[in-house]
Protein: DUF262 domain-containing protein
Amino acid sequence: MATQTIEQFFTGKSLEIPAYQRDYAWTTSNIDDLFEDIEEAMELGGGHYLGTFILSQAGKMAPVRVVDGQQRLTTLTMLLDALVDAVDELPIKEHYRSTYITHPVYGPKFTVLGSNKTFFSALLNDELPEPDSDGQQRLLVAYQWIRQRISAIKEHQGQEAIKNWLLSISHLEVLEFTEANEGKAIRMFQSVNDRGVPLAKMDIAKSLLIYYSNRFLDGELDSMIADKFGEAFRSFSKLKKLAAEPGYQIRLINRDPFREDNVLRYHYFAFNGEQHDVESGADYNATSETVLESFLKPALKAMRGDKERLARFISDYVSDLEVFFKGLLGLTEGVRTNRGLYLLLVVQDISATLYPLIIRLFTSKMLEVQVPSYLNYSMLELIELADLRVFKLQGTNPQADMAALMRAFSHLTTEEIAERLINFCQRFMPSAKFESRLAGEEMFRNPGLARVLLEAESAARVAVGLPQLEIGDLVEINTAGLTIEHILPQEPSFGVRLYGFRTEEAYLEHIHLLGNLAPLEKRINSACNNCSAENKMRDQKLYRSSQFRLIQGLAAKNASANPAFSKDAILARSIEIAKFSVKKWPLTEADLAE
Structure:
């Protein structure tokens, strides 16, 4: 353990970021904070403490692996590279480049291993690489921002400022811990960070598991744990990027707060702890903190006296966690080829409470299994049914029921899972209630509305001999911008009595009913504004120009009607779509009867 300057820290080392480490995570705000620290050090004329680095080096000539501090070192390397490029004097440029970037004999001073190795190298060589993961995109944004800031310094303050920056960075101070055994280094990382520095729970879980492997199993599982967590981090980076692509956005995953810790929590509900005499998924209100404090730590502590049992638990848990992350990645990839998955994850945006179930069904290769005794539903369709009826239309979130299902999952057949899901729907949203709610309650802001209307649109297409909406059509609709149209406008500029309403209050009570709502292209919806139904249906640039059959059908049916739409039409159409929905998402054979 020693305090030293950055220049001393880099001297004589070839630093590596192990492949198991998480992807680069810094934003431009983090980079700005680093710039402020350096500027403060320059103003004060002394060294500034940059923090602690925990390293592992197996032998004197071996590469030095960075266990903790990879985000700061990656950013520092990009900053130093940009500064060195900005220096005009060749001797100074060569000195700093050999010190921080590439040694003329030993090669790169800092290397990112794994899938980011080639990308990071190309980035420093100004080859403009194309990112293929969320972490690589952040690396690119960070590097471009750093170069812009250095360019501004050079332009406004000149060469002396660039050299002063390099000198000041060289004098920054760090505390270095080096341990020959990488498992022990990771234990040290956990010890340091458990004293107040906030970490993602996934990082703490990895460190905790390696600690128990290193301390009680002589390090036999250290590499396995590190490798599988590395795979989990890479899977998350890929799925996060895929879920953000236009036309394929999965809203839950695409939200900024959705991180690896969310998947760690989902896995807590899906993991079969019974085989190890530990209870997983018992707390249906569990957070990622709960996973650590109330499940993982007590389980490991209870097993530390039994090496064989501890090794079996760690191996099973870590392997299953990796499979679980890859399962979510597989689902995210699947929306590009599987229409049912696209509708469920992209359009319907299923509840987070159902993610443990759908991921476990996917990893168990059960998602497409059909159950003849339950209307030949597939598991995927049953999740769709439960989400739409209960979580969307009912607007409730029965976490305890789903947690109980996951605890029993390993003992259940597909028929038994189907039975539980059907009974779940019968209890919270039976068909009579489902139909009544769709027909008689406001639906405009219901999260299940888009799914209902797009299925009605597909049925309208099939009715006139056209194919149903396929993935390509749905992607095009989402990319262009799907909106929900009010056939009778929300703010009428006309008398409402003509349309069957005695008062304006009565009008406002009906406009958000399902029968007054339809899918419509964003551009046409904007053009409709608060036009009357007659104008919408007769103007060639409005409803008649839409690609939606539901809209075209309305225009054709009411082309010469006056009024073109009314209170009675809203109520009749609400009932029609409600009855269609019961048949589309039935619970029993009776729901399919005419």
